[in-house]
Amino acid sequence: MKQRLAPDTFIFPVDEIKNGLYSDCYFNRTRDILVADGKHSRVLMQIFQRQHAVVCGLDEAIAIIKKCAHNPDNLVIKALYDGDAIAPWETVMTIEGDLADFSHLETVYLGVIARQTKIATNTRRCVKAAGGKPMFFFSSRFDPWGVQAGDGYAARIGGAAGASTPANCLYWGGKAIGTIPHALIATYGGDTLAATFAFDKYIDPAVNRVALVDYDNDCVATSLAVARAMGGKLWGVRLDTSDTIVDASVIPQMGAFRPTGVCPQLVENVRRALDDAGFPHVKIMVSGGFNADRIADFEAARVPVDTYAVGASLFNDNTNFTADIVMVDGQPCAKAGRSYRPNPRLEIVE
Fold it and tell me: Residue 176 maps to which CATH number?
């Protein structure tokens, strides 16, 4: 049985939203006009978009309406569930009631649904391309801190196996995951082994030991050095080679493929070296410029990747939602080109 997150799960500035701080001014003025004129018709607001997508943000939108509308008990909300696959023009939510009670919220709830749907949809595409291999949400450094909780939740809805910040995990009760940054290695004088030892010494043993091995641009040599030093403690290595350089192990093989960055040949070189040295248990995580298409290419070529970490591409494209009044006092009433599109999949929100 599908369930919704309770409104109290979400963190947002209730008073500011209720007072219209984050709303397009004409929505605030609409409410002022309706109240001043005593116009309290009962309307049906219909929300949709124009792509195949994985909808998300509905639970937060519902929370915004319940906490920031005027007289929310007089509103009837029907909605799909976060994670539902949706078709172009499919109605994902309806709000029925006095427009003066919720006009000021349109900007806010549409923005939440649009952003989270974009991330959930992009994540689902990557997860599908990965064919069952874990995919992690490593995107928070590419956007302001204030959106992390919703972004991480949307990624989780899309199928991400984990995310990198505690805020990303806030709404679904997960724990942040991550490896070693280049900054830690630099602090240890560029010594990857020393940084990995420090991580192992001071971080909870329950955290997987994953070494970042591209600092010296010799992922094979660094992977072997760390594996020999760490032995069975080493869970995996992460390859994050810049897309402007060629790893030392790939240079002799250059010729008929693009050699820069984390290319398939680099992954194969690291896998072969680890296996030949007796470390088949060490997994390979890749990061740096991955999206659904690139993951699909790696999987089609049977590149021996165990885990994908995906960043900025999960923010690509837009999934824009529209809200239209389509009924007024029980009668059809909509702008030209719009009409009531009932959806039997919608369920009433208690």
Answer: 3.20.20.70
State which amino acid sits at residue 150: G
Query: Is residue 123 assigned to a domain?
Result: no
For the chain, how many structural domains are there in total? 2
- Measure the CA–CA gap between 34 and 23, rounded to whole angstroms: 17
pLDDT in tens, 262-316: 999 999 999 999 999 999 999 999 999 999 999 999 999 999 999 999 999 999 9
Work out the angle at residue 315's Cα, subtended by the Cα atoms of residues 214 and 178, and round it to the nearest 5 degrees: 40
DSSP-assigned letters across all residues of 246-274: --TTTGGG-SSS--SSS-HHHHHHHHHHH
- Kindly state the tokens that stand for 347: 């369920």
Phi-psi region of 16 (alpha: psi -120 to 50; beta: other; left: phi over 0): alpha
Q: Classify residue 1: in a domain, yes or no.
A: no
* Separation between Cα atoms, residue 262 and residue 267, nearest integer Å: 7
Question: Residue written as tokens 């509103």?
Answer: 75
Q: Encoding tokens for residue 350?
A: 């208690």
Please tell me whether residues 328 and 276 are part of one structural domain. Answer: no
In 10 A of CB 275, how many CB atoms? 13
Comparing CA positions, the residue from 148, 150, 138 lying closest to residue 290 is 138
